[in-house]
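Attaching the record inline, Q. Sequence:
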Amino acid sequence: MINHLQFEVFLKVYEIGSFTKAAEKLNMTQSAVSHSIAALEKNLGIRLFERVNRTVKITQAGISILPHVREIFNQEAIIKQKARELVDLEFGLIKIGCFPSFIAKLLPGLIKKYNEMFPKIEFHVFEGDYNDIIEWVKEGSVDLGISINSSELIFEPLIHDSMLVVMSESHPLRDSPVVTIKDIATEPYINVKGYEELLNEILRNTEIKLNVKYSFHNTYSIISAVEAGLGVSLLPELALPKHNAKICSKPLYPTFTRTIGSVIRSMETLTPASRSFINFLSEQLIS
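Structure, as predicted:
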């Protein structure tokens, strides 16, 4: 018979990638962990893990049931929080996946303001790019994500963020009121890893191919390269540093904005705390 502990062991082995370390985390013996996985595999009739070079790798069958196993624990959390709500307790944990510039500019202030109303709500924030966030939401690793739109998830727009052309202070285009893609087509271009989808949308319906010379993931690395005059880049306004940098930013023409919002699997799978925070984000950011 399948039991709750077997699913808990399954998730921990998957997350850590080791029977021994999972046993330590769960305060179990390694043999107990191995027995639990073996019993679950027998009950399900599928193999969940394979041992590869002293590591444990989840099978495709294991991957297919992973979101459903996570859902068991999500539903358990919902039941517990609903029970607490019945006695007017506002406890809860909200797990958020978010990209760096939103974390740097907006999220801390929003969490602080929310905690002033609900001080017993805890937050776990996971930083990643758009693809990371979408995957985290889909597999249930986080309750909600802050990202751009995804056709695979429920998306609620929150803010619009204009794309800007970023260049050094001494760049010949620094005095231009606006800059077009054609203006920078032959310039050395500093690519932003993770923004490929946005860049493809900007270049759609044009025959322009940017002259990519560098490719960075970290915004600060991009800003430093721009300051040094290594090239130009396209960055959302939200991604620009708070403090003065030796750069010049100009509006892109035609105007292009990225729409940022919350992404979830469904309202039904959200804990009460997560649902409350999504409503709070809408109240604070949509004007």
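The longest strand covers residues 154-168. The CA atoms of residues 16 and 22 lie 6 Å apart.

More tomorrow.
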